[in-house]
Amino acid sequence: MTTTPTDTQALSLPLSRAAKHADEQPISELIKMALDDPALISLAAGLVDFETLPGQSVAPIIRDILADPAGAKAALQYGTTEGFAVFRQQLYDHLCALDDAQTDVYPGSADDVVVTTGSQQLLNILAEVLLDADDIVIAGWPSYFVYTSTLTAYGATIRSVDLDEHGMVPEKLDRLLAGLSAAGQLHRVKFLYVVSYHQNPTGITLSAERRQQLLDIVKHYSAKAGHRIVLVEDAAYRELTYQGEAPPSIKSMDDNNQYVALCQTFSKPFAPGLKTGYGLLPSDLVEAVKLSKGGRDFGSSNFNMHIISRAMSSGAFAQHVGVLKRAYAAKIQATLDALEEHFTGIDGVSWTDPTGGLYVWLTLPEAVDTSRPGPLFGHAIKQGVLFVPGVYCYPNDPTRTAPTNTIRLAVGVPNPKQVREGIARLAQAVGQVLG
Ligand SMILES: Cc1ncc(COP(=O)(O)O)c(C=O)c1O
Description:
Elements: H1 17-21, H2 26-36, E1 41-42, H3 55-67, H4 69-76, H5 85-98, E2 113-116, H6 118-130, E3 136-141, H7 145-153, E4 157-164, E5 167-168, H8 170-182, E6 189-195, H9 208-225, E7 230-234, E8 260-265, E9 277-280, H10 283-296, H11 302-314, H12 316-343, E10 350-351, E11 359-363, H13 375-383, E12 385-386, E13 388-389, E14 406-410, H14 416-434
Parallel strand pairs: 1-12, 3-4, 3-6, 6-7, 7-8
Antiparallel strand pairs: 2-9, 4-5, 8-9, 10-11, 11-14, 13-14
Bound molecules: pyridoxal-5'-phosphate.
Pyridoxal-5'-phosphate binds near residues 118, 120, 236, 265 and 277.
């Protein structure tokens, strides 16, 4: 006789392997802590600046779209999976302009552009279409942890490569791939993930010289692997360059549009609420990405694309990028000045010197445990400052142990005065730990 459980609550939910492996993002808890206590200065949240969100320039665009009957119909209807053609051409032209390149020599074409719901969706789709369980992805040590934890949840093994002040170290990438090749594991390596400008979490930009070197290494080992090892270039912070010229994208060096999947977004240089990202991809990858995206949502918000398209053609987008650059440059400078004032002379302390983006990476003496259970975190909360323990930012590489003496400082939310105060409080907390 079959039995029916009377208490269905007792039966477990058949969650997938990926869902079981998806840890809650540690940063969510930190954001909640900051929201619960407004007196706390958050140098933790990866949100963008509230004060500069482009409400003033988006309002008339929305009015114009809706005032024009044809425009309103076009924007309020479903669109195509990849995004409407005029917008994709604008995006392609924008990439060419960023790289100071003529459209006729730039890799790919507007047909190779896919619009997604933020660049996060594109990164996720790339993982889905490129990875089988137990494949290997190579990423920086440290890396953008929201993505690397997603990769782990997909069942990928992450192997990591150190960064120095010029970004990922090519010799170390080469050594890692040579080792995997010697061990007969190269067939498992599917892609290399690089945040090429003002990396989250370190603020480091990959130097121009290393861009070509990484691409050459990927091509070299692709030939040995018998398949292309894709270079996923995440350029989320590209437009937010405050100092000097940003180097050309790795994509611009991908002559035949074969190796580099370039991912960009409007979240950082415009408005994350519009949640619009895009990629310029090798043509054969476009098909796979479109199929996957079709199955998920058959297209991102058409309305948001129309808003951004108009912002690009009217000049409102470019103008807003200028506003953001000035605002963030002041915050990064406030961070660097305050670090200089409060941390100079402490043995074993160093920090990065970003030329853009939202992050500065602070390394403390090895004796200072910055992790959540360590003493510094509690002291910092008592002083009224919140940071992201650097240990969260290291991918889950089974061959390595993450250091516990680093901190990610994010300047998105606080103003320069709060940044200075936050760093002064952090220095107090470090002083308490060092005794
Ligand atoms: C390096 C990097 N890539 C991608 C993203 C995803 O952003 P979005 O999906 O809003 O484009 C972020 C968000 O913080 C990021 O820091």
